[in-house]
Amino acid sequence: METMDLVQARTPKSVKTMANDILDTLGLNMSTYINMALKQLIIQGGIPFNVKVSQAAYTPGEAIREIDATLKMEGMPLSSDDLDILKEIKSGKITTDEARQKILREV
Q1: In this predicted model, what pLDDT tens digit does every residue of 13-46 receive, in sequence order?
Q2: DSSP output for 9-68
Q3: What is the pTM of this model?
């Protein structure tokens, strides 16, 4: 049997907790997962998934226009208030949960 060596890494506690929850469901532990990931790194000769900065498919304005056009085709046109809420979400001024609460207050 090959001699084992220690690998240490720092990660936010929440990330570790969420990862452990998933690994528990899969019947694995963190050590087994890390060994699996390192073996895939070796087998594939690099990181076994894409590591890149992805560009958004649409600009925020294009995404809002696409949503508006799609809903119009479905017979559900957006009001100017709806469009304003979408713009706030896209700009990061409010979250989708905050938008939902805002809409529910208006109903």
Answers
A1: 999 999 999 999 999 999 999 999 999 999 999 9
A2: ----HHHHHHHHHHHHHHT--HHHHHHHHHHHHHHHTS-SS----PPPSS-HHHHHHHHH
A3: 0.48
